[in-house]
Write a structure and sequence with these properties.
Its EC number is 1.2.1.97. 38% of the residues lie in helices and 23% in strands. With 491 residues, it is an alpha/beta fold. It folds into 2 domains: 267 residues, Aldehyde Dehydrogenase, Chain A, domain 1; 182 residues, Aldehyde Dehydrogenase, Chain A, domain 2.
Amino acid sequence: MPATETGLKHYQMYVNGEFKDSTSGKLLTVINPSTGEKISTVPSATREETQEAINDAYEAEKTWKFVPAATRGQYLHDVATEVRNQADHLIALLQEEQGKIKSLATTEIMFSADYFDYMAAAARTYEGEILQSDNKHENIMIAKQPIGVAAGILPWNFPFFLIARKMGPALVTGNTIVMKPSSDTPNLALEFAKIVDKVGIPKGVVNFVTGPGSVVGDELSRNKKIGIISLTGSVDSGKRVMAAASTHMAKVSLELGGKAPAIVCSDADLDLAAQAIIDSRIDNNGQLCNNCERIYVQEDVADEFTKKLTAKMAAVKVANPITDKDSGMGPLINQAALDKVDGMVQRAVKAGGKITTGGHKVTIENGFYYEPTVITNVKQDSEIVQDEIFGPVLPIVTYKTLDDAINMANDSDFGLTSSIFTQNLDNAARAANELEDGETYINRFNFEAMNGSHSGWKESGIGGDDGRHGIEEYLNTHVIYLQGHPEKAQG
């Protein structure tokens, strides 16, 4: 890749099968969150360049949709193979620009390869229907057909996997796609574009355009040639995309924020519960919408559970995940994220919250680190219990009855994931039936399966990902009424 005048690495956008810079001449600078150092630059595209990418994808889709699904699937298999071949390189890049510990970076890259293979296999399994007609000699067929051009707006917390989650189902069903990586983590997406180019996916089918959301993201949301917009991001971003998409009635699939409750019953295996909640909370340095964000623990085990949780959280080693192989948690993505988390904690303390461990920024080089934190004596209506933290902080609220716990868990604008820890089948059944979330985990940490369904309720989203339901997001339904006239048949 070419070097910039500053000596930083420089990546180019990938549009219609070509790597290119922006005519604007403007660059975005990427920061290593573990050290605070500048690591690369990427182009800042104009609205007109985004339109060109959409036009290229629109033209490519006219041919791509008629490529046999099995052939489209083979391209995805080829991508999966190449991801595995380049795994070590991709893992290192992911750690550098996003701050993951190595084990999680490895999981993200390898899971993405598996995800491409899973979606490739769908080429021969997604299907329509044939219905019985009330009319003589008529066939009613429901065909599943591509929507057209998909827009994929990517977050920074899983910058590689979310490419697979959006591109895989889009391509296998005959759509083309234009993706906008996060300005915090564009490097890996543009590195992935080299894989797309190497395996020979036809020009215009997959495109990456870098730049600010106010320009690139807005154009992807407003452009009439876009048929579906898939965004993973904040609630505010989702609302802006939805409003823009409404101008031309594009379909939206939005995976937004979460405030996942974890209910710990008095009969729970407390060691299992504490470890599962911590694994969920510090996963990706606390920056995951699935992460446990608030704990409801039954009063008679609250002290014992809090001690166990506090000890386990205090034992998590915070360190530069690139240079320290024993790091259990790396940095937050940037200074703004660090300041937000610390501000929420300090306001909770000022309101009467009690820190049992953590509660401070950590000075490691010039990175953006925060201590794993447990805070008690917080109220249900407080900011730290109601608003998404997106950092390694666990507020604890106590409850008397399961009714109380379920009511408080549902008292939220969010509805993405939840969990309950209990050895009582009736408690588990109640939680499964009454918690208002797209996913509920029972006696395990919060992480979904690729063949499941990942979707949120309330302000956590519209539409969904993964499994056959995620594939159907990228398909239109076409009902065909075929009226036969046997008397006119020849032969």
